[in-house]
Amino acid sequence: MIQIVLVDDHPLAIYGIGTWLCATGRFAISGTAKTLAEASSLFMQLEPMPQIVILDLALGKEDGLDFIPVLKKICAKRNTHLPGILVCSMYEDSFLVKRALDSGAQAYVAKSAESDEIIQAIEAILGGNTYINPKYLLQIKKAAWSTLTRREKEIVALVKKSLGNRQISKRLNISLRTVENHLTNIYMKTETSSRLELMDL
Is 100 in contact with 108 (CB distance < 8 Å)? Predict the structure, then answer.
């Protein structure tokens, strides 16, 4: 049985998600918390540690993501594994999705999503992967594209045409070093690490 902890300040959300997960016969709720303090206290005592934490972004006036570094410290102190973190929120903003992943979450599911999507996200985490709805990925990529300068966008366009760095430098009449510097900035802004990943922008 996969053990799950729910951290959410809405009793109905805890009851609804918890009841549905338990009804599948695959999951058990090993604890719930409505505040960061309650969550911290719970994880200091919980034995064994759950495999998954389903975390809301907004816990009243508290930021749910603030719990992630706290949880990491608790797990380090207890010398135990860090549970997979699935953020489940009413917010469907690509900036918040990216922020959640950057903070250490492995998955992000909107509360408006179909119930099966939570299962997909949990299975992805248990398999050592991440899960984001494709529509959020597209929004994140669009946001990354908008931060590029005109010259950087030109270089990405040429990369998409499979031109090498020397070909790009000749096409744009700039030095090879300049092309390499632009690519470094592009990788950083778009959080990509290869030409292949740039192809998908």
Answer: yes
Alpha-carbon gap, residue 98 to 83, rounded angstroms? 19
What's the pLDDT tens digit per position in 56-81? Answer: 998 988 999 999 999 999 999 999 99
Query: Same structural domain for residues 168 and 118?
Result: no
* Rounded Cα gap, residues 78 and 40, in angstroms: 12
> In sequence order, which residues have a C-beta less than 8 Å from that of residue 74 and are 6 or more positions away?
40, 43, 44
Q: For residues 182 and 155, what is the distance between their CA atoms, to the nearest angstrom?
A: 8
Distance of CA 129 to the CA centre of its chain: 10
pLDDT recorded at residue 160: 87
Q: In this structure, are 113 and 159 located in the same domain?
A: no
The residue range of the domain holding 159 is 147-198
Q: Please report where in the chains the tokens 């309650």 appear, as a residue.
A: 38
- 61 and 105: one domain? yes
